UniProtKB/TrEMBL annotation:
Entry superkingdom: Bacteria
Protein name: Sel1 repeat family protein
UniProtKB keywords: Signal
Cross-referenced Pfam families: Sel1
Signal peptide (UniProt feature, chain positions): 1-23
Length: 299
């Protein structure tokens, strides 16, 4: 290899190293997003979100509605640019959408680093969803160096600010990895109180592990307010007589019909499901009372 080629290779290597160094530097966390883990107190996300300019919110809703009507990849670049304009004006929801688009390369070249920058921007403003997404990125090592300890802190901060996804994630970790049932259940119950159906199903699963079928069905029913899998579980229980319940074909058919409606429209909710289809007592365990955390046999 001649001297010119050697010099070219050396310069190219230095430039590549500089680019990689710059990318890593851009992905570093700021001091504010290195939170301390504090004792968990249930908080709701809606109480920890900044106010949004009404005009910007109106524009955001219009873009979201337009986005949902589009055939995939038909107008993605324009949609991304519209979110960029709103994010630059401080609209955090648009910033979240923009970061997600960079994450998956929708309407822009895929860039984990740009996604992190916007998630970081959100976290610096103490927006719960920003911390949650930083936790996921750190846990998976996307744009950031894989950092389990950092992810652990970000999940806790997001949960402290009421983010239900983080509360669910921590609930699962405490229940099954750290074997701290009390802490895990507390996180899941807080997320469920915000309508996070995945935590409802998780509490149902844990009820089965405890051998409490009545408790399990109570939480599956809570999750089935908007979760197809939970609705399908309930349908199966009464069609097949699972978990010690008596077969009830008529009830199974009702759950099946609700499942079909929910499958067609995932945004559908059934807030009065417990009134529409009140759970029958388990033949041996009775009905679960969430206020006392006990099963009660009907008089």
């Amino acid at each position: 290899m001649n001297l010119v080629k050697l010099l070219f290779l050396a310069i190219f290597t230095l430039l590549l190293s500089a680019c990689n160094s710059e990318s890593q530097e851009n992905a570093q966390m700021t001091n504010k997003s290195n939170p301390k883990i504090e004792p968990f107190v249930c908080a709701f996300e809606k109480d920890n979100l900044p106010e949004i300019d009404p005009e910007l919110e109106k524009q955001y809703r219009e873009i979201r509605a337009y986005e949902k009507k589009q055939i995939p990849n038909k107008d993605e670049v324009n949609i991304t640019n519209q979110y960029q304009l709103l994010a630059d004006q401080g609209h955090w929801k648009a910033a979240s959408q923009l970061a997600t688009r960079y994450l998956y390369g929708k309407g822009a070249e895929q860039s984990y680093f740009k996604a992190v920058e916007w998630f970081q921007w959100m976290a610096d403003k103490d927006i719960p969803l920003g911390y949650y997404n930083l936790a996921v990125m750190a846990e998976k090592g996307l744009a950031l160096k894989q950092d389990k300890e950092g992810a652990w802190k970000y999940y806790h901060r997001a949960a402290q600010l009421g983010n239900p996804q983080s509360q669910y994630r921590l609930g699962e970790i405490y229940l099954y990895k750290r074997k701290d049932d009390s802490e895990g259940i507390s996180y899941h119950k807080c997320a469920l109180a915000q309508g996070y159906r995945e935590s409802g199903h998780a509490l149902g699963d844990f009820g089965l592990i405890e051998g409490n079928s009545s408790k399990a069905l109570y939480y599956y029913q809570a999750a089935a307010l908007g979760r197809t899998g939970s609705m399908l579980t309930l349908e199966g229980v009464f069609r097949d007589g699972d978990f010690g319940y008596e077969v009830n074909e008529a009830r199974a058919v009702q759950y099946d019909k609700l499942y079909d409606r929910l499958k067609k429209n995932p945004d559908l909710k059934f807030p009065n499901l417990s009134e529409m289809l009140p759970l029958p007592p388990h033949p041996e365990q009775g009905l679960y009372n969430p206020e006392t955390d006990r099963n009660e046999m009907p008089e």
